[in-house]
Amino acid sequence: MKRDVQRPADPGWRREWHDIIFEADSPAGRWFDIGLLVAILASIVLVAMETVPEYAAWQDQFVLCERILAGLFTIEYVMRLMTVRRPIKYAISFWGIIDVLSFLPTFIMPLMGASSASFVTLRAIRLLRVFRVLKLWRMMDDADELASAVWRSRNKIIVFLSVVLVAVTISGTLMYHIEHLDGAEGSGQFTSIPQAMYWAIVTMTTVGYGDIVPKTTLGKFISAALILLGYSLIIVPSTFVSAEIIQQTQTPDEPPCPHCAAVGQPVDAKYCYRCGDLLHV
């Protein structure tokens, strides 16, 4: 397996600890990452529980546990810096910044009289290490294929989003004016065109919060048309991406049969599936 370029070149304790902390090939490395994931999940649960009013009496215990976990994350971060070849490069990398933000606000924000909950949730990003722990490299390859398909479909997706934006703008503007005709009953909800565009987005995506509803007959007709339009458009982006994935993963077929011109011959076929004649004469 290809090692990290940050792995120390000289053998010794730094290389051994680097393999444990940054790799999951050995049992020690695997258990280290599993323990780290458990600590991350525990810290996220603690931050979430601090916001529940029913558990206000446990606030001090939650804060204490959170600080203990933040201390463990601090030790982990220092160990990562000590076991890489270029500590500064790791510190300014994406994962290095995420590691710092996962524990530093816990110690700084209370001194400023603010809550660190919003920063602590950045630890959820570190749960992506589960791909390494579970050895799901195949899944990572599939994710790369999906990202590549989305990128190749970007022009079609941009055109699609532009059409949706135009539809939202037109329907929102129409709904605003229709609901304000002659002091209509629903004019109090459609207070502005942006408000009406918000309603159009909620309606087109078939979410339907119900906080803003049309009252006029014509407004209800536009609402129904927008819902049907949303149903027909919601599958369009997935179609673009699916077509690109199929084009990327499909294997080329053999040339057509020279006798019956049947296409779609398997790559390793020797005889035509339709007429049975030899393909390669």
UniProtKB/TrEMBL annotation:
GO cellular component terms, semicolon-separated: voltage-gated potassium channel complex
Bilayer topology term: Multi-pass membrane protein
Domain annotation Ion transport: ranges: 30-234
GO molecular function annotation: voltage-gated potassium channel activity
InterPro entries, per database record: Ion_trans_dom, VG_K_chnl, Volt_channel_dom_sf
UniProt keyword terms in alphabetical order: Ion channel, Ion transport, Membrane, Potassium, Potassium channel, Potassium transport, Transmembrane, Transmembrane helix, Transport, Voltage-gated channel
One Pfam family it belongs to: Ion_trans
Record-annotated membrane-spanning stretches: 31-49, 157-176, 221-241
Protein's UniProt keywords contain Nucleus: no
GO BP: action potential
Subcellular localization(s) per the UniProt record: Membrane
Protein name: Cyclic nucleotide-gated potassium channel
